[in-house]
Amino acid sequence: MPKPYPPEFRRRALDLLDSGRSVRDVATSLGIAESCLHRWKSRDLLDRGLKTPTPEQVESAALTAAKARIAELETEVKILRKAAAAVEQVVPPKARFALVAELAAEGVPVKQACLSLGVSRAGFYEARSRPPSSRTIRQAWLSDRIAAVHEASRQTYGAPRIRAELVLGHGVIVSRKTVAALMRRAGLAGLPLRRKAKRVPPARTVTDLVKRDFRRDGPNQLWVTDITEHPTREGKLYCCVVLDVFSRRVVGWAIDSRQRADLATSALGMAIDSRGIAGQVPGGIIHGDHGTQFTSWTFTERARRAGLLPSLGSVGDPYDNAVAEAFWGRMQTELLDRRRWRTRVELANAIFEYIEGFYNRRRRHSALEWMSPIQFETIDRPSGLISSPTCP
Protein backbone atom coordinates (compact mmCIF):
# COMPACT_ATOMS: atom_id res chain seq x y z
CA MET A 1 0.00 0.00 0.00
CA PRO A 2 1.55 3.32 -1.05
CA LYS A 3 2.30 5.82 1.72
CA PRO A 4 0.06 8.92 1.82
CA TYR A 5 1.55 12.21 0.83
CA PRO A 6 2.41 14.44 3.80
CA PRO A 7 0.15 17.47 4.46
CA GLU A 8 2.91 19.92 3.56
CA PHE A 9 3.33 18.25 0.16
CA ARG A 10 -0.40 18.54 -0.56
CA ARG A 11 -0.42 22.16 0.59
CA ARG A 12 2.42 23.07 -1.73
CA ALA A 13 0.78 21.26 -4.68
CA LEU A 14 -2.43 23.22 -4.12
CA ASP A 15 -0.42 26.44 -3.96
CA LEU A 16 0.91 25.64 -7.44
CA LEU A 17 -2.66 25.23 -8.67
CA ASP A 18 -3.66 28.53 -7.05
CA SER A 19 -0.82 30.24 -8.90
CA GLY A 20 -2.63 29.58 -12.21
CA ARG A 21 -1.01 26.40 -13.41
CA SER A 22 -3.17 23.61 -14.79
CA VAL A 23 -3.84 20.31 -13.07
CA ARG A 24 -2.11 18.38 -15.85
CA ASP A 25 0.99 20.59 -15.67
CA VAL A 26 1.31 20.29 -11.89
CA ALA A 27 0.62 16.54 -11.91
CA THR A 28 3.25 15.97 -14.59
CA SER A 29 5.76 18.15 -12.76
CA LEU A 30 5.27 16.37 -9.41
CA GLY A 31 4.79 12.86 -10.84
CA ILE A 32 1.34 12.27 -9.33
CA ALA A 33 -2.02 11.36 -10.82
CA GLU A 34 -4.35 14.11 -11.99
CA SER A 35 -7.25 12.48 -10.13
CA CYS A 36 -5.27 12.82 -6.91
CA LEU A 37 -4.88 16.55 -7.46
CA HIS A 38 -8.57 16.91 -8.24
CA ARG A 39 -9.48 15.19 -4.93
CA TRP A 40 -7.10 17.43 -3.00
CA LYS A 41 -8.52 20.53 -4.63
CA SER A 42 -12.11 19.45 -3.98
CA ARG A 43 -11.34 18.65 -0.32
CA ASP A 44 -9.61 22.02 0.12
CA LEU A 45 -12.62 23.88 -1.26
CA LEU A 46 -14.92 21.97 1.08
CA ASP A 47 -12.71 22.69 4.08
CA ARG A 48 -12.67 26.41 3.32
CA GLY A 49 -16.43 26.54 2.74
CA LEU A 50 -16.10 27.54 -0.91
CA LYS A 51 -17.98 24.49 -2.15
CA THR A 52 -21.18 22.79 -0.98
CA PRO A 53 -20.69 19.06 -0.35
CA THR A 54 -22.95 16.56 -2.06
CA PRO A 55 -25.12 14.18 0.01
CA GLU A 56 -22.75 11.34 -0.84
CA GLN A 57 -19.77 13.37 0.44
CA VAL A 58 -21.62 14.28 3.63
CA GLU A 59 -22.51 10.65 4.26
CA SER A 60 -18.97 9.57 3.51
CA ALA A 61 -17.51 12.15 5.91
CA ALA A 62 -19.96 11.14 8.66
CA LEU A 63 -19.10 7.49 8.13
CA THR A 64 -15.39 8.21 8.31
CA ALA A 65 -15.85 10.20 11.54
CA ALA A 66 -17.98 7.42 13.02
CA LYS A 67 -15.37 4.80 12.19
CA ALA A 68 -12.65 6.92 13.80
CA ARG A 69 -14.78 7.38 16.93
CA ILE A 70 -15.50 3.64 17.12
CA ALA A 71 -11.80 2.87 16.91
CA GLU A 72 -11.10 5.41 19.66
CA LEU A 73 -13.78 3.93 21.94
CA GLU A 74 -12.46 0.41 21.38
CA THR A 75 -9.03 1.58 22.47
CA GLU A 76 -10.48 3.23 25.59
CA VAL A 77 -12.38 0.03 26.45
CA LYS A 78 -9.17 -2.00 26.26
CA ILE A 79 -7.42 0.47 28.56
CA LEU A 80 -10.32 0.48 31.03
CA ARG A 81 -10.39 -3.32 31.15
CA LYS A 82 -6.70 -3.39 32.01
CA ALA A 83 -7.23 -0.69 34.65
CA ALA A 84 -10.21 -2.55 36.15
CA ALA A 85 -8.14 -5.74 36.39
CA ALA A 86 -5.41 -3.82 38.22
CA VAL A 87 -7.97 -2.21 40.55
CA GLU A 88 -9.37 -5.63 41.50
CA GLN A 89 -5.90 -6.71 42.67
CA VAL A 90 -5.10 -3.71 44.89
CA VAL A 91 -8.45 -2.18 45.92
CA PRO A 92 -10.65 -4.11 48.38
CA PRO A 93 -14.31 -4.74 47.49
CA LYS A 94 -15.57 -2.22 50.05
CA ALA A 95 -13.64 0.56 48.38
CA ARG A 96 -14.90 -0.59 44.97
CA PHE A 97 -18.45 -0.36 46.27
CA ALA A 98 -17.77 3.33 46.94
CA LEU A 99 -16.60 3.74 43.33
CA VAL A 100 -19.79 2.06 42.09
CA ALA A 101 -21.87 4.50 44.16
CA GLU A 102 -19.97 7.47 42.65
CA LEU A 103 -20.50 6.14 39.12
CA ALA A 104 -24.19 5.50 39.81
CA ALA A 105 -24.57 9.10 41.03
CA GLU A 106 -23.13 10.23 37.69
CA GLY A 107 -25.73 8.26 35.74
CA VAL A 108 -23.81 5.04 35.01
CA PRO A 109 -26.00 1.91 35.37
CA VAL A 110 -25.17 -0.03 38.52
CA LYS A 111 -25.04 -3.31 36.60
CA GLN A 112 -22.43 -2.01 34.18
CA ALA A 113 -20.38 -0.34 36.94
CA CYS A 114 -20.33 -3.52 39.04
CA LEU A 115 -19.35 -5.61 36.01
CA SER A 116 -16.47 -3.28 35.14
CA LEU A 117 -15.12 -3.12 38.70
CA GLY A 118 -15.50 -6.84 39.40
CA VAL A 119 -18.08 -6.72 42.21
CA SER A 120 -21.57 -8.17 42.48
CA ARG A 121 -24.74 -6.09 42.45
CA ALA A 122 -26.10 -7.99 45.45
CA GLY A 123 -22.95 -7.18 47.44
CA PHE A 124 -23.18 -3.52 46.45
CA TYR A 125 -26.82 -3.15 47.55
CA GLU A 126 -26.16 -5.07 50.77
CA ALA A 127 -23.15 -2.88 51.63
CA ARG A 128 -25.18 0.25 50.94
CA SER A 129 -27.99 -0.80 53.25
CA ARG A 130 -25.69 -2.07 56.01
CA PRO A 131 -25.20 0.40 58.94
CA PRO A 132 -21.65 1.75 59.44
CA SER A 133 -19.36 -0.25 61.72
CA SER A 134 -18.01 1.05 65.01
CA ARG A 135 -14.57 1.34 63.43
CA THR A 136 -15.94 3.50 60.61
CA ILE A 137 -17.74 5.72 63.11
CA ARG A 138 -14.59 6.11 65.24
CA GLN A 139 -12.46 6.94 62.20
CA ALA A 140 -14.96 9.58 61.09
CA TRP A 141 -14.95 11.08 64.60
CA LEU A 142 -11.14 10.99 64.73
CA SER A 143 -10.91 12.64 61.32
CA ASP A 144 -12.99 15.56 62.60
CA ARG A 145 -10.82 15.91 65.72
CA ILE A 146 -7.62 15.70 63.67
CA ALA A 147 -8.88 18.37 61.26
CA ALA A 148 -9.73 20.65 64.21
CA VAL A 149 -6.29 20.19 65.82
CA HIS A 150 -4.57 20.75 62.47
CA GLU A 151 -6.50 23.98 61.93
CA ALA A 152 -5.81 25.15 65.49
CA SER A 153 -2.08 24.63 64.87
CA ARG A 154 -2.26 27.05 61.92
CA GLN A 155 -2.03 24.02 59.63
CA THR A 156 1.54 23.35 60.79
CA TYR A 157 1.29 20.14 62.85
CA GLY A 158 2.20 16.78 61.37
CA ALA A 159 1.09 13.36 62.62
CA PRO A 160 3.40 13.21 65.72
CA ARG A 161 2.27 16.57 67.13
CA ILE A 162 -1.38 16.00 66.31
CA ARG A 163 -1.22 12.66 68.12
CA ALA A 164 0.46 14.35 71.08
CA GLU A 165 -2.32 16.97 71.17
CA LEU A 166 -5.00 14.29 71.02
CA VAL A 167 -3.41 12.13 73.72
CA LEU A 168 -2.16 14.81 76.10
CA GLY A 169 -4.59 17.62 75.39
CA HIS A 170 -7.85 15.72 74.74
CA GLY A 171 -7.29 12.32 76.36
CA VAL A 172 -7.87 10.43 73.09
CA ILE A 173 -5.95 7.16 72.82
CA VAL A 174 -4.76 6.75 69.23
CA SER A 175 -1.59 5.57 67.50
CA ARG A 176 0.61 7.74 65.33
CA LYS A 177 0.11 5.45 62.32
CA THR A 178 -3.66 5.83 62.57
CA VAL A 179 -3.34 9.61 62.73
CA ALA A 180 -1.00 9.59 59.73
CA ALA A 181 -3.37 7.39 57.70
CA LEU A 182 -6.40 9.56 58.47
CA MET A 183 -4.43 12.69 57.64
CA ARG A 184 -3.45 11.25 54.26
CA ARG A 185 -7.06 10.32 53.59
CA ALA A 186 -8.20 13.86 54.46
CA GLY A 187 -5.40 15.51 52.50
CA LEU A 188 -3.79 17.08 55.59
CA ALA A 189 -0.06 17.49 56.10
CA GLY A 190 2.28 19.34 58.43
CA LEU A 191 4.90 21.83 57.38
CA PRO A 192 8.38 20.32 57.02
CA LEU A 193 11.42 22.04 58.42
CA ARG A 194 13.50 23.32 55.53
CA ARG A 195 17.04 22.42 56.43
CA LYS A 196 19.88 24.05 54.54
CA ALA A 197 23.40 22.67 54.54
CA LYS A 198 25.80 25.15 56.07
CA ARG A 199 29.55 25.19 55.89
CA VAL A 200 31.26 24.77 59.24
CA PRO A 201 34.41 26.91 59.41
CA PRO A 202 37.46 25.85 61.39
CA ALA A 203 37.26 26.32 65.14
CA ARG A 204 38.53 29.58 66.59
CA THR A 205 39.43 30.73 70.07
CA VAL A 206 36.32 32.49 71.43
CA THR A 207 34.64 33.10 74.75
CA ASP A 208 32.29 30.12 74.53
CA LEU A 209 30.85 29.01 77.88
CA VAL A 210 28.35 26.58 76.32
CA LYS A 211 30.44 24.51 73.87
CA ARG A 212 27.31 23.10 72.20
CA ASP A 213 26.03 21.57 75.46
CA PHE A 214 22.45 22.89 75.67
CA ARG A 215 21.25 20.46 78.35
CA ARG A 216 20.00 22.22 81.48
CA ASP A 217 17.93 20.90 84.40
CA GLY A 218 16.24 24.16 85.35
CA PRO A 219 15.05 27.51 84.01
CA ASN A 220 17.18 30.65 83.67
CA GLN A 221 20.46 28.73 83.62
CA LEU A 222 21.14 29.23 79.90
CA TRP A 223 19.56 31.67 77.49
CA VAL A 224 20.36 31.85 73.78
CA THR A 225 19.74 34.83 71.54
CA ASP A 226 19.88 35.57 67.84
CA ILE A 227 18.52 37.95 65.17
CA THR A 228 16.73 37.18 61.92
CA GLU A 229 15.46 39.35 59.07
CA HIS A 230 12.58 39.03 56.64
CA PRO A 231 11.53 41.21 53.69
CA THR A 232 8.31 43.14 53.24
CA ARG A 233 7.23 45.47 50.45
CA GLU A 234 8.30 48.39 52.64
CA GLY A 235 11.72 46.88 53.37
CA LYS A 236 13.30 44.42 55.79
CA LEU A 237 12.09 43.79 59.33
CA TYR A 238 14.44 42.51 62.05
CA CYS A 239 13.50 40.37 65.04
CA CYS A 240 15.66 39.38 68.01
CA VAL A 241 14.61 36.69 70.48
CA VAL A 242 15.94 35.32 73.77
CA LEU A 243 15.10 31.66 74.48
CA ASP A 244 15.46 29.66 77.68
CA VAL A 245 16.97 26.35 76.55
CA PHE A 246 15.39 24.48 79.45
CA SER A 247 11.84 24.96 78.15
CA ARG A 248 12.57 26.41 74.65
CA ARG A 249 10.38 29.34 75.70
CA VAL A 250 10.85 32.76 74.11
CA VAL A 251 11.36 34.84 77.24
CA GLY A 252 12.24 38.08 75.44
CA TRP A 253 11.87 39.54 71.97
CA ALA A 254 12.20 42.82 70.09
CA ILE A 255 11.21 43.91 66.57
CA ASP A 256 12.58 46.90 64.65
CA SER A 257 13.19 48.15 61.13
CA ARG A 258 16.94 48.49 61.85
CA GLN A 259 19.48 46.01 63.14
CA ARG A 260 21.26 47.87 65.90
CA ALA A 261 22.58 47.12 69.36
CA ASP A 262 19.43 48.43 71.05
CA LEU A 263 17.42 45.70 69.26
CA ALA A 264 19.31 42.94 71.10
CA THR A 265 19.42 44.95 74.32
CA SER A 266 15.64 45.47 74.26
CA ALA A 267 15.03 41.72 73.82
CA LEU A 268 17.41 40.95 76.70
CA GLY A 269 15.75 43.57 78.87
CA MET A 270 12.33 42.05 78.25
CA ALA A 271 13.66 38.63 79.22
CA ILE A 272 15.22 39.94 82.44
CA ASP A 273 12.09 41.86 83.44
CA SER A 274 9.66 39.04 82.59
CA ARG A 275 11.67 36.40 84.47
CA GLY A 276 12.84 38.62 87.32
CA ILE A 277 16.16 36.81 87.50
CA ALA A 278 18.53 39.59 88.52
CA GLY A 279 20.95 37.98 90.96
CA GLN A 280 18.73 34.91 91.51
CA VAL A 281 20.56 32.37 89.35
CA PRO A 282 24.33 32.49 89.92
CA GLY A 283 26.20 31.52 86.79
CA GLY A 284 23.32 32.16 84.36
CA ILE A 285 24.56 32.47 80.79
CA ILE A 286 23.35 34.53 77.83
CA HIS A 287 24.77 32.94 74.66
CA GLY A 288 24.88 34.54 71.20
CA ASP A 289 27.07 34.88 68.14
CA HIS A 290 29.76 37.40 67.20
CA GLY A 291 27.32 39.93 65.77
CA THR A 292 28.05 43.51 66.73
CA GLN A 293 24.70 43.68 68.53
CA PHE A 294 25.83 41.00 71.03
CA THR A 295 29.42 42.22 71.41
CA SER A 296 28.39 45.85 72.01
CA TRP A 297 29.01 47.52 75.35
CA THR A 298 25.30 48.22 76.00
CA PHE A 299 24.33 44.57 75.55
CA THR A 300 27.14 43.06 77.63
CA GLU A 301 26.76 45.65 80.37
CA ARG A 302 22.99 45.00 80.59
CA ALA A 303 23.71 41.26 80.92
CA ARG A 304 26.36 41.73 83.62
CA ARG A 305 24.11 44.04 85.68
CA ALA A 306 21.51 41.25 85.71
CA GLY A 307 24.07 38.70 86.88
CA LEU A 308 24.37 36.95 83.50
CA LEU A 309 27.63 35.78 81.95
CA PRO A 310 27.95 36.70 78.24
CA SER A 311 28.99 33.84 75.95
CA LEU A 312 29.82 33.83 72.23
CA GLY A 313 29.93 30.95 69.78
CA SER A 314 32.51 30.72 67.01
CA VAL A 315 32.23 32.90 63.94
CA GLY A 316 29.86 31.64 61.21
CA ASP A 317 29.08 28.34 62.95
CA PRO A 318 25.31 27.72 63.32
CA TYR A 319 25.80 24.64 65.50
CA ASP A 320 27.22 26.75 68.33
CA ASN A 321 23.78 28.37 68.62
CA ALA A 322 21.68 25.43 67.43
CA VAL A 323 18.65 26.07 69.67
CA ALA A 324 18.14 29.58 68.31
CA GLU A 325 18.79 28.45 64.72
CA ALA A 326 16.19 25.69 65.11
CA PHE A 327 13.63 28.20 66.34
CA TRP A 328 14.23 30.46 63.33
CA GLY A 329 13.95 27.50 60.96
CA ARG A 330 10.60 26.52 62.40
CA MET A 331 9.21 30.08 62.41
CA GLN A 332 10.44 30.55 58.85
CA THR A 333 8.46 27.50 57.76
CA GLU A 334 5.34 28.00 59.87
CA LEU A 335 4.94 31.76 59.47
CA LEU A 336 7.39 33.87 57.46
CA ASP A 337 7.54 31.94 54.18
CA ARG A 338 3.83 31.15 53.95
CA ARG A 339 2.87 34.47 52.36
CA ARG A 340 4.16 37.81 51.12
CA TRP A 341 4.02 40.64 53.64
CA ARG A 342 2.90 44.11 52.61
CA THR A 343 4.04 46.29 55.51
CA ARG A 344 6.43 46.03 58.44
CA VAL A 345 3.54 46.55 60.86
CA GLU A 346 1.65 43.61 59.38
CA LEU A 347 4.67 41.31 59.73
CA ALA A 348 5.50 42.59 63.23
CA ASN A 349 1.96 41.83 64.41
CA ALA A 350 2.12 38.36 62.88
CA ILE A 351 5.46 37.61 64.61
CA PHE A 352 4.09 38.83 67.94
CA GLU A 353 0.99 36.65 67.62
CA TYR A 354 3.08 33.64 66.59
CA ILE A 355 5.47 33.92 69.55
CA GLU A 356 3.08 34.83 72.34
CA GLY A 357 -0.17 33.34 71.09
CA PHE A 358 0.99 30.11 69.48
CA TYR A 359 4.63 29.09 70.09
CA ASN A 360 4.94 29.72 73.82
CA ARG A 361 1.43 28.71 74.84
CA ARG A 362 0.18 26.04 72.43
CA ARG A 363 2.85 24.62 70.13
CA ARG A 364 3.91 21.15 71.25
CA HIS A 365 7.66 20.51 71.20
CA SER A 366 9.19 17.09 70.61
CA ALA A 367 12.10 17.89 72.98
CA LEU A 368 9.63 18.74 75.79
CA GLU A 369 7.76 15.43 75.88
CA TRP A 370 5.23 16.94 73.44
CA MET A 371 4.31 19.78 75.78
CA SER A 372 4.27 23.49 75.02
CA PRO A 373 7.05 25.62 76.58
CA ILE A 374 4.75 27.21 79.19
CA GLN A 375 3.15 23.87 80.03
CA PHE A 376 6.59 22.30 80.44
CA GLU A 377 7.64 25.06 82.84
CA THR A 378 4.50 24.90 84.98
CA ILE A 379 4.58 21.18 85.80
CA ASP A 380 5.72 20.42 89.35
CA ARG A 381 9.52 20.38 89.73
CA PRO A 382 11.82 20.87 92.72
CA SER A 383 13.67 23.72 91.00
CA GLY A 384 10.75 26.03 90.23
CA LEU A 385 12.54 29.37 90.06
CA ILE A 386 10.23 30.87 87.46
CA SER A 387 8.66 34.18 88.27
CA SER A 388 5.56 34.71 86.17
CA PRO A 389 5.32 38.14 84.52
CA THR A 390 2.74 40.45 86.01
CA CYS A 391 0.51 42.82 84.09
CA PRO A 392 1.22 46.53 84.67
TrEMBL record:
Keyword Glycosyltransferase (UniProt): no
Recorded superkingdom: Bacteria
Pfam families: HTH_21 (PF13276), HTH_Tnp_1 (PF01527), rve (PF00665), rve_2 (PF13333)
Boundaries of every Integrase catalytic domain copy: 215-381
Biological processes annotated in GO: DNA integration; DNA transposition
GO molecular function, one term: DNA binding
PROSITE patterns xref list: INTEGRASE (PS50994)
UniProtKB keywords: Coiled coil
Any coiled-coil regions, as ranges: 63-90
Function statement: Involved in the transposition of the insertion sequence.
Name of the protein in question: IS3 family transposase
Protein's organism: Pseudonocardia bannensis
